[in-house]
Amino acid sequence: MTDWIKTTIESLGYVGIALLMFLENLFPPIPSELIMPLAGYTANLPGAKLNIYGVFFAGLMGSVLGALIWYYPGKFLSEKRLQALADKYGSWLGISNKDIIQAKHWFNKQGKKAVLIGRLVPGVRTLISIPAGISNMHLPSFLFYTTVGSGCWVGLLTYTGYVLGSQYELVDKYLAPVSKFVLGGLILAFAFWILKRKRKSRRR
């Protein structure tokens, strides 16, 4: 996959970066943790045709457009219909109906900030658009939080790849445990919130 990503960036430039990040939102197995560090590294090569700012904005644009693709099915299709489609075709995209349910519950508890935070968490960042659409979150708000969250994620990956140079693959290696730690922390915080709510209900 690395060779394919590299070839796409080298042949299509900024358009290739935007396309890859767009596809990354549709097919989670395509890792942004590899796309953007590689693009950042490419921008730091001697005589590079790309610059780090163009790489960042191309990646951000592709990421936001990809998020919109998941927002509209959530807005116009019922939750049950989406779950049925996930059961039937989700294996092609790497998602299941359980993923949709989990993302929906998290969105309901966290509100609008779930979109911003979710864009920073691998495994959640792709699917968080679906409950936003199901809940009829206003498009301007969705775009704002998605852009801010995606900007932070894309910027981090691009800069680390630019700084690490030929060792850009270390980004994925060291970021994966950190991402799992962050996701675990969010799950614990959510569990604590539920426990706290139950205690308050019993007191009443």
From TrEMBL:
The keyword Membrane applies. GO terms for cellular component: plasma membrane. InterPro entries: DedA_domain, VTT_dom. It comes from Chlorogloeopsis fritschii PCC 6912. Belongs to the DedA family. The chain crosses the membrane at residues 12-30, 50-72, 142-162, 174-195. It is a multi-pass membrane protein. Residues 30-162 form the VTT domain. This is Alkaline phosphatase. It is found in: Cell membrane.
